[in-house]
Design goal:
This protein is an all-alpha fold. 70% of the residues lie in helices and 0% in strands. The chain is built from 17 helices and no strands. The longest helix is centred in the first third of the chain and has 46 residues. The relative contact order is 0.13.
Amino acid sequence: MPDDRDGRGLTGKARRDTSSSNKINTRRTEAFEFRERNIMRKLLTFYFLCFAWLGVIPVIDLLAGGGLMDFERMGRAASAQTGIPWTSSLVDMVRLAAVEPGLWLLLLGSAAPLLAGLTTMVIWPDRSGALQQWLKRFSPIGAGATIKGSVLAYFAVIALCLLALAGSAALGQGSATPGLTAPATAGFLTIFPAVLLSALLDQGALLEEGGWRGFASPQLEIRYSPALAALIVGIAWGLWHLPRDVTTGVIERLGVVEYALAYLPSFLLGTIAVSLIASWGMMRCGGSLWPAILAHGLSNDAFGLTGHVTIIEALTPEHQLTRGVPLLLAGGVLLAIDRRLMFSRPEPK
């Protein structure tokens, strides 16, 4: 019989060492599974901290003797005293908070996702690399993206959001008072930069996106397709507003049934839609966070393009539905024209 000790067998050809190959594959599988578990632990930690940072607000209010959570009263008082409009502009909010210190708690609430993301990165062993990757997302054009492709992506995000706002204005004409009455006389070349500036300075967009799209989305995209990651973040983002709806009386005013069956689904429709648009823009801009900030800021409509509504009108199922449907159609357009990008699953490494 032929001697098979050299691994050549009857054919005289070298035989593949399957035991070594299997060991390598096993190690790769174990490493992948370990990384998957780590990702989910990070995300659960992040989401818990999003609520934990919100929980700091009532604790501070309690220690101060109460009254610091009446943000509407404080906002109106500071606005009357300074003449600064109470809007979602971060610059205006900081100026108002200088007069009414209780408004800093409102800003703390908006910054909860950002603080949760940073806290999660700091407590994990790979903090240095994670923080570096996070900081890189503030570049307008990320790694691997071209200038031309990024410019087109920014244009698409802005155009689709503005079209969605136009659709919202058409659907919500019955309840909203017309916006842009005075500045409309200045012309498009004046209004358009003002709209973009209001979007980029939006309090929610600037303070929240560092967490939702700066941390959570990239983590999920290691495991899931961009579309599925955007859906998960959109739902989580929407449900994160539940404490606000409890403390500001939205649930009490609408009733539990109307809130659960009408308002919350309509609100989630909007957060999922914005999440899809933001995710697509980030993917096409090499991971840059600015398309997400723009999409978030424009959808909040700080400039009043869809008409001016009171906070009571804004927090109704009708308003959320007229806002959410056009945005979801805009997100659907991006999914349809860029299916390969948005539904591609990451390769195990």
